Amino acid sequence: MSSKSQQWQVFKRLMSYLTSYKWLTALALSFLLLTTVVKNIIPLVASHFIDRFLGQLSQPALLILLGYYGLYLLQTLLQYLGNLFFARVSFSIVRDIRRDAFANMEKLGMSYFDQTPAGAVVSRITNDTEAISEMFSGILANFVSAVFIFLVTFYTMLTLNVGLTLLVSLLLPCIFILVSLYRKKSEPVIAKTRSLLSDINSKLSESIEGISIVQAFRQEARLIKEFSAINEEHVRYANRSMALDSLFLRPAMSLLKLLAYALLLTYFGLNWQTSGITAGMIYAFIQYVNRLFDPLIEVTQNFSTLQTSMVAAGRVFDLIDESAYEPKQASTGQAITEGKIVFKDVSFSYDGNNKILDKISFEVNKGETIAFVGSTGSGKSSIINVLMRFYEFQSGQVLIDGQDIRTYSQSSLRQSIGLVLQEPFLYHGTVKSNIGMYQELTDQEIKSAAEFVDADQFIQKLPLAYDEPVTERGTTFSTGQRQLLAFARTVASQPKILILDEATANIDSETEQIVQHSLHKMREGRTTIAIAHRLSTIQDANCIYVLHKGKIIESGSHEELLALGGTYHRMYQLQAGMMTS
């Protein structure tokens, strides 16, 4: 599909959003049309005054003057109302587009976010939708107004004098040639400028999120250099766009308007005695040339913004149309009652080529705890990703309570599995909202969950207790406190299956005792899968699996694995040595 065809498809799709606001749009168009009619009456009134009453102070002359200025006031009022209603349509449409983009983003799978920088997604939902807003509130209103003015003005000019109208019309093809040339030259420049703005947002987002690492490893100079390079390239393309604007838009259009004035005045000067053209008519035609050219100048002046808006809209629609969703689940299904998990020869790859899990098989019964250990990249977290249905596995079978995992609905699956990550994520809100996660839980249920995991002790010491504000990512809380809040959140949902992804990896030894006590209570009666680096935290597991390059190479209890004298034994000795050194 050509770029022009793509832009046409994007434009039609944008216009489809107008259908929800057709009456408001019709009202806005009505005011614009009335404004155009009033604008074209004003020169006629002035022409009549010049030819009939110029130099007179009669009552009719004064009435015409009052009517003349009254029409200007009416024009201002109608134009204000038209722009106001167009702005309302614009903001409503952008709200709908932003809602659609965000709603689809929330449904996308982890694979999409693995490949797409967070800053690029943020840029599409914020900056790009704002560019669309500019198109609807300003450019579209100006374009529709320009069409109305052009048609009504041209018709009025024809009724006044066909010859003068045709004389001015000689310059109209030049306008369309200029617009066509500008579109052809500016389109790739604007697209590149928009892409570079997205890169700037991505680099900025990455730098802010990782600022502690940046400063710890003294990477400020490198990141400043990289950011400056992208920023400079963005400025270069922005300057190219401005150069095209300066060449093809207002200066060129203004020159054409001056030529139209010259043609009219020259014709009038040479033929005023024989043509029957009055001074009032020439004045009216000069005004109509302004009416004819000014809207076209304004539209072409905003053409770069229109191009930017079309590119931005295309990027937003790409996000809305993105179909890299989470793995499909049954729309309805039975609830998980026991929590027994079975993996049968499960193989999984993120890219479809390199196997991360290679024929993994294990079984864990209700109330049992199993653990996975291994070096980084051995596939531990990938087992969790498969079980949580963040990714689709390529072969094998995953069963819960004897049923294929795909037969459970997503809500049933996620409600029955409690996930506690190494880095607990807290939302902006309160302690209460972070534990309850906006589920239909009573204050007592939230408090009971916090008490169960021993989080109530520190919560009660906070100035506002459960109503204590939580800033972004919970930075005002210690790592241990954030983890306890994450535990309370998990317990509050009453899951049948508990997944602990290195839940104590970042906690100090003193806090770990409290957390381990909470974990022990959480595991009671629940099927638990733990991923751990600290082998001391999983010694009581029913079975421990040692992973290496996506395969299970050892399995058994803590004592059995130590007796084997293999990989687990070496890992244990290494950690024991580090503890005693």
Automatic annotation (TrEMBL):
What CDD domains does the record tag this protein with? Answer: ABC_6TM_TmrA_like, ABCC_Glucan_exporter_like
* Cellular component annotations (GO), alphabetically ordered: plasma membrane
Q: What is its main location?
A: membrane
- Top-rank taxon of the source lineage equals Bacteria
> Which InterPro entries would you find in this protein's record?
AAA+_ATPase (IPR003593), ABC1_TM_dom (IPR011527), ABC1_TM_sf (IPR036640), ABC_transporter-like_ATP-bd (IPR003439), P-loop_NTPase (IPR027417), Type_1_exporter (IPR039421)
- Where does the record place the ABC transporter domain? 341-574
Q: Keywords, A to Z? A: ATP-binding, Membrane, Nucleotide-binding, Transmembrane, Transmembrane helix, Transport
| Name assigned to this protein | ABC transporter ATP-binding protein
The scientific name of the source species is: Streptococcus cuniculipharyngis
